[in-house]
Amino acid sequence: MKSTLIIYSSTDGQTKNISSRIYEIVNRAVPSKLMSLEDATKEDLKKFDRIIIGASIRYGKHKKELFDFLDLHHDELIKKDSAFFSVNVVARKPEKNTPETNPYMQKFLLKTSWVPKNLAVFAGKIDYPKYNFVDKHMIRLIMWITKGPTDINNTYEFTDWHKVDDFAKKVIT
């Protein structure tokens, strides 16, 4: 029976929420473990048969720590059954919600030599009330430019949870 490690790199918590949902589904089928990228740097990846990594985007980039982790564990990751998903608000648009059409997934794939077996892109969440002053207004400006929601008193969740569930089922088959 395959064991699975699910790692998340989350800025505001939506990638962690998505990873938790994937964990719930995968763990029903195979023994699994869920942890943050920070904690995973201390984990022995050899103990796992499958590794799933999810990472959020902020201001157009995945965190540097994600790429540091991938570089550090590259040799082990390429031996594994693996998957990667990116969480970003651009994926709220139908024409940018697949690995082939999402600009952040495409940038990710160009920046790393790791080639996961499965890829996915999920739309994230905008939680204006939770953001600090600078993030609130920067994200609002980006949303105004991209014709997204700009009311800073509201929270907007774009995640398609059925798509998340389908991805989780796919990676364990």
Give an overview of the whole structure:
- This protein is an alpha/beta fold and 173 residues long.
- Helices cover 38% and strands 22% of the residues.
- It has a single domain (4-125, 158-171), classed as Rossmann fold.
- The strands form two sheets. Strands 2-1-3-4-5 form a five-stranded parallel beta sheet.
- β1 (4-9), α1 (14-29) and β2 (32-36) form a beta-alpha-beta unit.
Total of DSSP H or I helical runs spanning 4+ residues: 7
CATH superfamily: Flavodoxin domain
Instruction: Outline the biggest β-sheet.
Output: 5 strands, parallel
Low-confidence stretches: none
Q: What percentage of amino acids are in beta strands? A: 15-25%
Coarse structural class: alpha/beta
Task: State mean pLDDT (0 to 100 scale).
Answer: 95
* Total domains: 1
Which geometry do the CA atoms define? globular
N-to-C order of helices and strands: EHEHEHHEHEEHEH
The level 1 CATH classification is: Alpha Beta
Q: What's the arrangement of strands in the largest beta sheet?
A: 2-1-3-4-5
Q: Give the total of beta strands.
A: 7
- End-to-end distance: 12 Å
